Here is the input.
Amino acid sequence: MAAPGSRFKLGIVRDVLNAAGEPSFGSAALEVLKGNPALDWEYTAQAVKEITADLAASYDGLYVNSSRVSSATVARGDCRLRIVARHGVGYDSVDVGALSAKGIVLTNTPIAVRRPVAVATLTLLFALAGRLFAKDRITRAGRWTERNDLMGAGLVGRTLGIVGGGGIGQELLKVSAPFGMRRIVADPYADAGALAALDTSTVPLDQLMREADFIVVACLLTDETRHLIGAPQFALMKPAAYFINVARGPIVDEPALIEVLRSGRIAGAALDVFEQEPVDPANPLLRMDNVIVTPHALCWTDECFHAIASDGLRSVVDFSLGRRPAHVVNPEVLGRAGEG
Here is the structure.
């Protein structure tokens, strides 16, 4: 970890700024940085799709939103970087192995996103169940009498299936408890005791795909989960079932999803994530009336971003003071961080 008392330079990647040039998470979270008077910080000169080796040579720490951190980022001998703090929970945009090999700590913010993502998931579930956007369209078009053909799906007695029983999955179980649904989770690594305490049972993925009326993807993207859900899994779904993805696009085989939606094989989908982001304007999903789409940002609220930034920036401050950050993705490097 960083040596206490020495100056520490942090770069906050510019893609966290809004159109007015202000931090999208609000200025209050920046107060956290005052926890180390020896910490100097600035926004990077440009927003970049990938953190460059020049940036890695310029800062002790980087606070990163959507920019990728690759092996090339840290490959040079003059790499100064000692910590990368992710603005969010997912870290599939970071080459963790490359950072670990250089003794660079990676942190994320798993606690801050749990409730916002769970609430965003319920927002999509309610919109699908109530056929909200279809009813919005007929109302604006003056087709009031068509409402009889747009009956929604009640939730009591329906089955909610969650792929991923980690922090977000468990938070979704908590917030969905009042709505009378049976809840099941597919996750071979989940804490079965914690899920049982939330009145939930664990089942194999195929069983979840067959039984659930609403299927929510809420797991991390890893080599193991990439294209975890494809044509064989979609073929198991009920024709009246809905599919929701609030995790990462590549967990799903998108062409297979497009096909089952296009053919009417399932009732619909709600997607906050895509295999390619930003999503291609020609993507057929954007033209389907039975699909709700949002730009990987449905959970973004002032509350959510303040919590994420406060946690993420606090991890940098703790590291700069020689303390262990709260949420370290690669804890094995902590004893040698700073060796380079």
